[in-house]
Amino acid sequence: xxxxxxxxxxxxxxxxxxxxxxxxxxxxxxxxxxxxxxxxxxxxxxxxxxxxxxxxxxxxxxxxxxxxxxxxxxxxxxxxxxxxxxxxxxxxxxxxxxxxxxxxxxxxxxxxxxxxxxxxxxxxxxxxxxxxxxxxxxxxxxxxxxxxxxxxxxxxxxxxxxxxxxxxxxxxxxxxxxxxxxxxxxxxxxxxxxxxxxxxxxxxxxxxxxxxxxxxxxxxxxxxxxxxxxxxxxxxxxxxxxxxxxxxxxxxxxxxxxxxxxxxxxxxxxxxxxxxxxxxxxxxxxxxxxxxxxxxxxxxxxxxxxxxxxxxxxxxxxxxxxxxxxxxxx
Length: 330
Hints:
- The protein is of the alpha/beta class.
- The protein is built from nine helices and 15 strands.
- Helices cover 24% and strands 27% of the residues.
- Strands 3, 4, 5, 6, 7, 14 and 15 form a seven-stranded mixed beta sheet that branches.
């Protein structure tokens, strides 16, 4: 079988030579484990941080070892009764064609016609990030103004649609006219092309009464523009800062951070795993909204394990619309 390993730690933007593809033996399973044929890989921004050798909320990837992340696969060998051969499961698997994992570390996917890859997107970590970030951390309320950066991505697109379900006015920023056009199709009230517009001025025009919730996926100049336009007692949900992930040197913070004091803002970071105990409610709500047509699902799919490194590099460059996925088995 083949696997994708971390060949070198990137300096700045990741490049092809930071990855390697090699042949390896199919792993043997121990008691309590299952052997999974990996069908789908999730490609997510947080993986860039794991390529660095530094302490974070998840350990770094080891050099000369497979990368790993959210995935969906099919059980092909088992030692447990409740996960028979043929069962579709999701969990954290290596970037390889087969992986041996503990049966306790996977979730069996219901056979209810839901596309299994949805459990890596709208029904998986990105969907839960959007759901709990906006509802639990952002404390969203009917009639509020919500601004989302990276709004055409896996998390941002779901945040905007949940905000509409909750009765909010939604503003989304994204890069390029195609993505901004897609925001209109998803129901955003205002779409902003940050590559061609002045974010601060555009937000001021779109939200003259101020932004109540800014869901930050980008950091940098997006966070600074949002701070200029926050309403008193607004909330900033600090989900990510993709504009900074490939910086080789630390970047200065927003020059207008004092506005958080003057406007009595709440800035709160969060990690989605803090909310995994509430996963059932999120999946039930999301399935219902997708079924009712209230949430549309965008996916960018590349094919073949060998395409995984390029998918991660492309994600960092904003080449995806919605969720970036690798279809390993085809």
